[in-house]
Design brief:
mainly alpha; Hypothetical protein af1432; 2 domains; 12 helices
C-alpha cells in the first residue's frame, strides 16, 4: 500500500466515526474508547511489523488493517448499546461487510485487499479459519496480536481508574466481585482458550486475558507484553489460590521462553 492510500483511509475513518456523534460535540465514551483503541492498534501494528523486518509497503498495509479492524464497533454500539458480540452482532463479520459495501479497498492491489479483509473478518475469531491463505495469514496473526496488546491496556486502565463503574460495557458487564467460574477455568486449562458463555466475573475476564499469551503469534508481541509488565498486573488482580498461582507460573514461564 502506498502512503496516499493510507492517508485516504485514515481521513475516511475519522469522517465515518464523526457520523456517530449524533449532533454532539464529542463521541459517546464507549465509541471514543474504540476510536482511540483503533489508533493505538495502528501504532502497535507498525511497531511489530517493523520489528519483524516487513517492508514499508507491507507496514502501511498493516497500519490500514489496524485502523479498520474495529470499524463495525460504531454501528454495533449505536444499534445495540453493547460491544458484546453474543448479545448483538459479530463485529468482525460486520466490519468485513462495511469494507466491502463501501468499496474502501477497491483501488488496492488484490493482495492488500485480501490481507485487510481477512484481517478485519477474522481478528476476533476464537481460532483463525484453516482456509486462510498463507499471505493473508501473516496479517491476520498480526492484527490479533496488536489488538490484544491494546485491550490489555484498556482493561488495566478501566480497573485502575474505576471507569467500569460508569461504563460497565468496558468489561462486558461482568460482576466485579466473585471467584473464577469453575467451568471456565476447566476449559482454559484444557484448551488454553474459552468461550464467553462462561464469562461471569472480573476474575473470569482476567483469566481469559492471561491465557491470551498462548495465542500470541510473533516474538515482538510477546516482548512488548513482557516489557509492559502486563502479566504482573493481571496476576495481581486474581485470587491467590494454589490453582491460580500455578496457572500464572506456567504463563510466566511461557512468556519468558517465547520472548527470547
Amino acid at each position: 500500500m502506498n502512503e496516499e492510500k493510507l492517508e485516504s483511509l485514515t481521513k475516511w475513518f475519522h469522517e465515518y466515526a464523526n457520523t456517530f456523534r449524533d449532533r454532539q460535540p464529542v463521541l459517546p465514551f464507549a465509541m471514543q474508547l474504540k476510536l482511540n483503541h483503533s489508533l493505538r492498534v495502528v501504532q502497535d501494528m507498525e511497531r511489530i511489523a517493523a520489528a519483524l523486518g516487513w517492508p514499508a509497503e507491507e507496514i502501511r498495509t498493516a497500519k490500514a488493517l489496524g485502523l479498520l479492524h474495529d470499524v463495525a464497533r460504531f454501528s454495533q454500539y449505536a444499534e445495540f448499546g453493547t460491544f458484546h458480540d453474543p448479545r448483538s452482532v459479530n463485529h468482525g463479520e460486520r466490519g468485513w461487510q462495511i469494507c466491502v459495501d463501501m468499496k474502501l479497498l477497491s483501488d488496492c492491489s488484490p493482495e492488500d485487499r485480501q490481507r485487510i479483509l481477512d484481517g478485519v473478518r477474522y481478528h476476533n475469531r476464537r481460532t483463525i479459519p484453516p482456509e486462510t491463505s498463507a499471505e493473508a495469514l501473516r496479517f491476520v496473526k498480526l492484527i490479533r496480536d496488536a489488538d490484544k496488546l491494546d485491550i490489555f491496556r484498556i482493561v488495566d486502565t478501566a480497573i485502575e481508574k474505576n471507569q467500569f463503574l460508569d461504563n460497565p460495557e468496558i468489561l462486558l458487564h461482568v460482576e466485579i466481585d466473585g471467584p473464577p467460574t469453575p467451568a471456565l477455568l476447566d476449559e482454559l486449562e484444557q484448551t488454553r482458550s474459552a468461550s464467553y458463555k462462561y464469562l461471569k466475573t472480573l476474575a473470569d475476564f482476567l483469566l481469559v486475558q492471561l491465557y491470551w499469551v498462548y495465542d500470541m503469534n510473533y516474538a515482538p508481541t510477546i516482548r512488548c507484553f513482557s516489557e509492559r509488565r502486563t502479566l504482573d498486573r493481571i496476576a495481581g488482580r486474581l485470587p491467590d489460590t494454589d490453582r491460580i498461582r500455578r496457572i500464572v507460573q506456567e504463563a510466566r514461564a511461557y512468556v519468558e521462553a517465547q520472548a527470547k
